[in-house]
Amino acid sequence: MDPFELTDGTVLLRIPGAEDVDDITRICQDPTIQEWTTVPSPYTREIGVGFVEEFVAGGWTKGSPTWAIRELADNARLVGMIGLTAQPVRSAEIGWWLAPEARGRGLMARAVELVVDAAFGRLALDRIEWRAFVGNDPSRAVAERSGFTVEGCIRGGAVDGETRRDDWVGTLLATDRR
User: Fold this and answer.
1) Rounded mean pLDDT of the chain?
2) Three-state SS for 120?
3) What is the distance between the terminal CA atoms of the chain, rounded to a whole angstrom?
4) Alpha-carbon separation of residue 68 from 57, 153, 164, 178 (angstroms)
5) Which of 54, 71, 79, 103 is the most exposed place for a label (fewest CB within 10 A)?
6) Does domain 6-125 have CATH number 3.40.630.30?
7) Closest to 36 measured CA to CA, from 80, 92, 91
């Protein structure tokens, strides 16, 4: 799949490039991101380079797009990341993180809406799955506002390094009302 951009005039979703590695590395130092996502800790610049050059680039070729979230009002500065991981039979898992200074302003909800619209439109998916470690209430709030139905908790369903954690799971179908 060729990379494509998404925007609503407030946020711009664009494939991250080499020029974004320092911002990605800085933002991934945030203790909240390290607590609630599976980003490596410590998050080094080399990990950021690998993320952009291998994970992101390879993901697009396999139908698993990742976008940098940019706030247009702030010179299109990178403030987060959002992506879809392809699953079998027209399905994907959505995941995201956001810089501390960008939280609480609706930017992630806008980004999720853009990705969901593209997933059910351009990408012709039938289903999107959302997962978060139990207790990640901000992520759950975004998912629920975006129309995801939280199906429940999978005990020990997530792996964080060498630790198992309880995992919330939610779904959104193309036929669901949003």
Assistant:
1) 96
2) helix
3) 27
4) 12, 29, 28, 24
5) 54
6) yes
7) 80
